[in-house]
Amino acid sequence: MMTPFAGAIVQGEDALAMAALYLTGEGATAAGLAERFGTLGAPIDRARVAALLERLVALGLVYTPASRDGAAYYVPTALGEGYTRAALGGQPDLAARLEELEHLRTDLLATVAHELRTPLTAIRTCVGLLLDPATPSDAAAREQLLQTIERSSDRMQRVLADLLDLARFRAGRVQLQLRRFDARQLARDSAAVVAPLLRERGQVLDVALPRAPVWVYGDHRRLEQVVLNLLSNAHKFSPDGGAIRLAVGTAGDEVTWSVSDHGPGIAAEDQARLFERFFTVAGRAGGGRGGAGLGLPIAMAIALAHGGTIEVDTAVGQGSTFTLRVPAQGPAETEEP
Predict the structure, then answer these.
(1) Which of 9, 47, 71, 296 is most buried, most CB within 10 Å of its CB?
(2) Within this chain, do residues 114 and 130 fall inside the same structural domain, yes or no?
(3) Domain presence at residue 227
(4) Looking at the structure, do residues 55 and 161 belong to the same domain, yes or no?
(5) Sign of dihedral through CA atoms 276, 281, 286, 288?
(6) Beta partners for 208?
(7) How far, in Å, CA of 138 to CA of 263, rounded?
């Protein structure tokens, strides 16, 4: 069955306009298309053609790269060409898939633009103040502006690094640096990293570790990245003064790191989407911000690359526990030396 959006495109005058543009190869002006319709025995006045083309521009199927003789010059986008081929070839399912891909592309651009705009604005503002002769020149004020620039630059770098990480994992181009280490030490290192963030909001981290070493064969840096993401989320979405728990354990032949909080929990309808790219849970308490929605997808990709997974136990009003599980002997295709 066609989606409503696809159906609107492949029927009636919209379909005629798209087909005409597609068949011209290099695009045309509204007047040129009106003339072409006339020669094909389907006369449509120029104003109506212009209105149709503007509608197709709004739908992302046509764009105007230039003007010709002072008039807008319209060319099908890659999506528009795909829709037209699907319509002309009687493949409405292909049109629906193209629509979904276009929505994903649009979401990506919007998310990246949103995540980069705020730190970039902060950097430009601080640089402007530093260059302004009227800005107080005392060392403390200058240091504060430089620290804001540094934090904003770090935030932009993290967003770009996350995007690259996700692309590499999806393309299977990430090589894990496997070695044997104690899972308890990874927990201690992660706890030390987030300790300053927790202190700012009076939050308390309880680290529960077995007495004996818990050996695991994996990529220490990547697995620490996962644990840090889980701890960061617990920090963001827990109330001031809240308690967070990080526990290391074993379950059969698996090693586990669990992060628990007493925050608001996650609604059932959101749980299934937690590991989707760019998905963020709206309206969660604790004053946290959802970010770009890339942390958990990357964390899951790292877990899967190790032959493991991430489990979630949560309910609204009862907090959340995220558990990273990986085989103690490493990914199935590798053998510990």
Answers:
(1) 9
(2) yes
(3) yes
(4) no
(5) positive
(6) 247
(7) 42
Separation of alpha carbons 124 and 44, rounded Å: 50
Give me the residues paired with residue 269 across strands: none
Residues 235 and 281 in one domain: yes
Question: In this predicted model, what pLDDT tens digit does every residue of 85-129 receive, in sequence order?
Answer: 666 666 666 556 656 656 666 666 676 776 778 788 889 999 998
From CA 322, how far away is CA 246, in angstroms rounded? 10
CATH number at residue 182: 3.30.565.10
294-297: long-range contacts at Cβ-Cβ below 8 A with a sequence spacing of 24 or more?
294/159, 294/162, 294/163, 294/165, 294/166, 295/162, 295/229, 295/232, 295/233, 296/229, 296/233, 297/166
Between the CA of residue 292 and those of 55, 113, 222, 303, what are the distances in Å? Answer: 31, 10, 19, 20
Give residue-wise pLDDT tens across range 238-279. 999 999 999 999 999 999 999 999 989 998 888 878 887 767
CATH number at residue 77: 1.10.10.10
* CA separation for the pair 57, 49 (Å, rounded): 12
310 and 199, same structural domain? Answer: yes
The phi, psi pair for 3, rounded to 5°, reads -75, 155
Contact 222, 302 (CB under 8 A): yes
46 token code pair: 């120029």
Nearest to 238 by CA among 201, 271, 206: 201
CA separation, residue 298 to residues 131, 163, 233, 302 (Å): 39, 9, 13, 6
Which SS3 state, helix, strand or coil, does residue 64 take?
strand
Query: Is there a single domain that holds both residue 323 and residue 182?
Result: yes
Q: Is 258 helix (H, G, I), strand (E, B) or coil?
A: strand
State both tokens at 124: 């430009």
Report the distance separating Cα 258 and Cα 209, nearest Å: 11
